[in-house]
From TrEMBL:
InterPro entries, sorted: aa-tRNA-synth_I_CS (IPR001412), Gln-tRNA-synth (IPR004514), Gln/Glu-tRNA_Ligase (IPR050132), Gln_tRNA_ligase_bac (IPR022861), Glu/Gln-tRNA-synth (IPR000924), Glu/Gln-tRNA-synth_Ib_cat-dom (IPR020058), Glu/Gln-tRNA-synth_Ib_codon-bd (IPR020059), Glu_tRNA_lig_a-bdl (IPR020061)
SUPFAM superfamilies: Nucleotidylyl transferase (SSF52374), Ribosomal protein L25-like (SSF50715)
Residue ranges occupied by any Glutamyl/glutaminyl-tRNA synthetase class Ib anti-codon binding domain in the UniProt entry: 339-437
Domain tRNA synthetases class I (E and Q) anti-codon binding: 454-527
Residues reported in the UniProt entry to bind ATP: E32, P33, N34, H38, I39, G40, H41, A42, K43, S44, T228
Top-level taxon of the source organism: Bacteria
Subcellular location: Cytoplasm
GO biological-process terms attached to the record: glutaminyl-tRNA aminoacylation; glutamyl-tRNA aminoacylation
PANTHER family in alphabetical order: GLUTAMATE--TRNA LIGASE (PTHR43097:SF5), GLUTAMINE-TRNA LIGASE (PTHR43097)
Reaction(s) catalysed (UniProt annotation): tRNA(Gln) + L-glutamine + ATP = L-glutaminyl-tRNA(Gln) + AMP + diphosphate
NCBIfam families: glnS, PRK14703.1
EC id: 6.1.1.18
The protein's name in its UniProt record: Glutamine--tRNA ligase
């Protein structure tokens, strides 16, 4: 990788290595298994994995499963699949924070013995009151000066299940007058008689995030613990924990800004509501930006990597346009995929001077910009489907496609002159007629005649019928994501289902996640959930054109 300019995290790592603070780099991605990963998590995954690669170091995958309420095995599996798909290979470094519960307990005992932690009987509400505010110092707990012996005894009894939830907590003894509220004797262990998805009922006390996380990092030998900006003012506590526990090589926390997409829903609570209300068909609905949804829509790991790279790493929160993500997938696919013909909104075109039962195979280049993709055979015949919008009985100004008397090019095939159309009793056009010029095979006329319009087509006899789904943003962008009452401004046109599309036969055997360019219509991907062998369903990944500029 050509390094143009390093980001602030790389500069910090360079400095640490130069000063001998660490002699190697070890990063981690620590999701809580309480939901599906989204594009923001992809940024964190690729950042941490990328740094481990760049510095020839290690990358750890760790489930931060210290909070038993919301965690589920289902999420563990989906998270693993998503990270593997993104290509962040953790090799044999897969960890569960819950495996460290014994060490965390020992760490708490160590703090108690050092006089740095105490068992407190204040209620949650009292603790909050005593904590003070930004402008007022906190008040010390009346239990703060319990003896080491008493604390050891009470903490052990907490572990043994003698106390009810919320009746006692273990707190770090730091400084109730600290300007940083996180340092005002934070709670580090609580009593919670809850079943844990991995440790079962072994524990009835659980460590708090700010205590558990630095221990997890230190146990694994993480050097740079990269997290998002909201943890910046927790860093003094992180440093306090690793210092007081006297780890030989304390990890360093570095914060960066979260990735936000403009007018896109990422909050778990909101997605859950969309699923429950049936607005979307699951966490992987192609309109969402969970990694599962992006994969189902047809995004590639490469496109997401490119996107994350373009966003860069920063200390300032900002929001990126979805169009940039679309740009990245377009760039990724444009040379990799065959340019095939599919008619999404069909009307029949009959070439009256073409032999009735003849089917002729035409040799078509798969991608004119990438000859390596080779060519394929596309059948042509007397009856074709073309897009309804490629015909106008009475053309408007500058309309160069089919209208009576006009000659156009059928892409990769022949010149055709439109001779008229048939209509039903309601005036709807049912069939268009034309005649072809046999001399113009391949799409050029030997006499040098020019045509202005080129349209795509699919031979009716051999066409594969399929469903295509077109997407727009779930959100009405004019109005923004949320109303004042917290409800969402949904775009009623976010999904268009086209049930009767016709594809050229080369697409017949397309499998889940296969993607193609459908000329003029965009890039499409076989839907992994709903597509069947004899009833293909395609998602439009992205259209071909955009006003997006880099
Ligand atoms: P969410 O509430 O959206 O699920 P989270 O931070 O609670 O996010 P975690 O499972 O705790 O989810 O996140 C795992 C890692 O992903 C953390 O290190 C977190 O900082 C990072 N992360 C989460 N959201 C983003 C984002 N939008 N941009 C970059 N990194 C993120
Ligand atoms: Mg999460
Ligand atoms: Mg979290």
């Amino acid at each position: 990788k050509e390094v143009v300019s390093k980001n602030f995290i790389e500069l910090a790592i360079d400095k640490d290595l130069a000063e001998g603070v660490y002699d190697h780099v070890c990063t981690r991605f620590p999701p809580e298994p309480n939901g599906y990963l989204h594009i923001g998590h992809a940024k964190s995954i690729l950042l941490n994995y990328g740094l481990s690669q760049e510095y020839n170091g290690e990358f750890h995958m760790r489930f931060d499963d210290t909070n038993p309420t919301k965690e589920k095995t289902e999420f563990v599996d989906s998270i693993k699949a998503d990270i593997q798909w993104l290509g962040a290979d953790w090799k044999d470094h897969l960890y569960y924070a819950s495996d460290y519960f014994p060490q965390m307990y020992e760490a708490a005992v160590k703090l108690i013995k050092k006089g740095k932690a105490f068992v407190c009987d204040l209620s949650a509400e009292e603790i909050r009151e005593y904590r003070g505010t930004l402008t007022e110092p906190g008040k010390e707990s009346p239990y703060r000066n319990r003896s080491v012996e008493e604390n050891l005894d009470l903490f052990e009894r907490m572990k043994n299940g003698e106390f009810e939830d919320g009746s006692k907590v273990l707190r770090a003894k730091i400084d109730m007058a600290s300007p940083n509220i996180n340092m005002r004797d934070p709670v580090i262990y609580r009593v919670a008689h809850m079943h844990h998805h991995r440790t079962g009922d072994t524990w009835c006390i659980y460590p708090m995030y700010d205590f558990a996380h630095p221990i997890e990092d230190a146990i694994e030998g993480i050097t740079h613990s990269i997290c998002t900006l909201e943890f910046e003012d927790h860093r003094p506590l992180y440093d306090w924990v690793v210092r007081e526990l006297e780890y030989p090589m304390p990890p360093r926390q570095i914060e960066f800004a979260k990735l936000y997409l403009t007018n896109v829903v990422t909050g778990k609570r909101y997605i859950k509501k969309l699923v429950e209300d049936g607005v979307v068909d699951g966490w992987d609905d192609p309109r969402l930006v969970s990694i599962a949804a992006l994969r189902r829509r047809g995004f590639t790991p490469e496109s997401i990597k490119k996107f994350v790279d373009l966003c860069g790493v920063s200390k300032a929160n900002s929001s990126v346009d979805y169009a940039m993500l679309e740009y990245c997938i377009r760039e990724d696919l444009k040379l990799k995929k065959a340019r095939t013909m599919a008619v999404l909104n069909p009307v029949k075109l009959v070439i009256d001077n073409y032999p009735e039962d003849q089917i002729e195979m035409l040799e078509v280049q798969n991608n004119l910009e990438n000859p390596e993709l080779g060519s394929r055979q596309v059948p042509f015949g007397r009856e074709l489907y073309i897009e309804r919008e490629d015909f106008m009985e009475e053309p408007v100004r500058k309309y160069f496609r089919m209208f009576p008397g006009n000659e156009v090019r059928l892409m990769n095939a022949y010149f055709v002159t439109c001779t008229g159309c048939e209509k039903d009793e309601n005036g709807n056009i049912t069939v268009i007629h034309g005649t072809y010029d046999p001399e113009s095979k391949g799409g050029n006329s030997p006499d040098g005649r020019k045509v202005k319009g080129t349209i795509h087509w699919v031979a009716a006899k051999t066409a594969v019928k399929a469903e295509c789904r077109l997407y727009e943003n779930l959100i009405d962008e004019e109005k923004g994501v949320y109303n004042e009452d917290g409800s969402m401004n949904l775009n009623p046109n976010s999904l268009t289902v086209l049930k009767e599309c016709y594809l050229e036969p080369s697409l017949k055997d397309a499998k889940a996640y296969d993607s193609f360019q459908f000329v003029r219509n965009g890039f499409f991907c076989v839907d992994a959930k709903d597509s069947k062998e004899d009833a293909l369903v395609f998602n439009r990944i992205v259209s071909l054109k955009s006003s997006f500029k880099l």
